[in-house]
Amino acid sequence: MNGFDFERLLSTRLRRRGLLVGGGALTGLAIATQFSSRVVAQPRFSGYPFTLGVASGDPLPDSVVLWTRLAPDPLNGGGMPSVNVPVQWQIATDENMSKVVLRGTAITTPELGHSIRVVVGGLQPDRWYWYQFKAGNEVSRIGRTRTAPAFGTPINQLNFAFASCQDWQNGYYTAYKHLAEENLNFVVHLGDYIYEYGPLAIGPRQHNSPEIVSLSDYRNRHALYKTDPNLQEAHAAFPWIVTWDDHEVENDYADLIPEDGQSPQAFVNRRANAYKAYYEHMPLRAAALPKGADMRLYRRLTFGDLAEFNVLDTRQYRSDQPCGDGFKPRCAEAFAADATMTGREQEQWLLQGLSKSQTRWNVIAQQVMMAEYDFVAGSPEIFNLDAWDGYVASRNRILGFIKDRKPNNPVVLTGDIHSSWVHDLKTDFQNPASPTVATEFVGTSITSDFPTAAIATVQAALPENPHTKFFDGQYRGYVRCNLTRNAWQTDFRVVSTILDPNASISTLASFVVENGRPGAMRV
């Protein structure tokens, strides 16, 4: 059938498989009725309700999350009445939606901004699916998603890309236009999906409000970013695995400590608003539903016997940045044993996962640069204390564990710093002869800027950081990774400019990590 055949849907009795899959939707209905009982079966919208596109995420071998949000007036609270609205969904094995395998109905509520997440189970591993939503008489675009290979299944190849830092005001999301055309299994987003600032008049487009604080502020800002057609294309093309950094709440916050100018209670409220809006706009499973200012985001996803991804949260549980934050010499607090980037529970979770992993590649997907880097040649040494250089003992515990336990091929993926880097990770960065225990790839931003004046300074310091194999601060884009059983290849894909919606794409540099040999070699 082409599109939604709702007469057939209503007249066909549910099969057992459909009931098993529909459990997520039925759970959503049960939750919705706790908020309010009024459901508008045939809603009328003031405009097209699927203005924010569709998305999918967190692929498992038998299930995936499907997402959309009803928002006919996306930049003004969504434009939906305060009633529950049913949304029908279906998933097919072909792009024309003629071979529908599962369908159901979920309830959107005003309490969650009329967002919807459907966890569709009972799917076949390692295959493409297409999906679509319908509300009232309105139909969404068709999205594409892919399940993960079955646990432990031998697979020979995996393709994915990772991205981060997409400040709306700096430039256009042309990088996402090209990313959507890549041959990928999924996309990993490492944070700074939105920025909280007010208008800065720094680029070709502006934020839609002053600095955001309230729930409606954060909802409108997420909606602004999701109106971008290139971002919508990238979400509709692949499932995404997402985590946050700081700007989803506030620059450089640490746990419940704000950057400045807020009382503790005001920041707790602000973080709760930010986390709720993030959950509402991402294809996350219900386990991530925030509880006030707390939200469990770190998690693990496995792709056959080839790769396991440990997705970290280095903001919610970290101790305060030492030495006053920023780029400066390290003080004693940067070496404190109790200083933590992840919190004790998440750190133990990570180490236990690495120790038990049976996959060929073990990925740590996280936010801030793990490698040590002295940013200025000569004395004094200058470090970024918002990154792992401000949490030396915490980093040493993880890299020391990797050295001792030797999980297969550990690779760290990083965003945050708006530039491209390749590092050999060592237990002793002060000793170039120290063995390399892992590899770190740091991806540039989609649009967020790296100070042009700082590029020469960083380059001048490269000889004093021999574990750093590559740096570029000029170009924006994303990172494409191809994994096989014998090698991992990373391609730094960059656009010619972020100021032209029709900018071209090219590969700036490529690096390979060989199976069993930590450290990257330039192709």
UniProtKB/TrEMBL annotation:
<protein>
    <submittedName>
        <fullName>Alkaline phosphatase</fullName>
    </submittedName>
</protein>
<dbReference type="Pfam" id="PF16655">
    <property type="entry name" value="PhoD_N"/>
</dbReference>
<feature type="domain" description="PhoD-like phosphatase metallophosphatase">
    <location>
        <begin position="160"/>
        <end position="492"/>
    </location>
</feature>
<dbReference type="Pfam" id="PF09423">
    <property type="entry name" value="PhoD"/>
</dbReference>
<dbReference type="InterPro" id="IPR038607">
    <property type="entry name" value="PhoD-like_sf"/>
</dbReference>
<dbReference type="InterPro" id="IPR029052">
    <property type="entry name" value="Metallo-depent_PP-like"/>
</dbReference>
<feature type="domain" description="Phospholipase D N-terminal">
    <location>
        <begin position="52"/>
        <end position="147"/>
    </location>
</feature>
<dbReference type="InterPro" id="IPR052900">
    <property type="entry name" value="Phospholipid_Metab_Enz"/>
</dbReference>
<dbReference type="InterPro" id="IPR032093">
    <property type="entry name" value="PhoD_N"/>
</dbReference>
<dbReference type="InterPro" id="IPR018946">
    <property type="entry name" value="PhoD-like_MPP"/>
</dbReference>
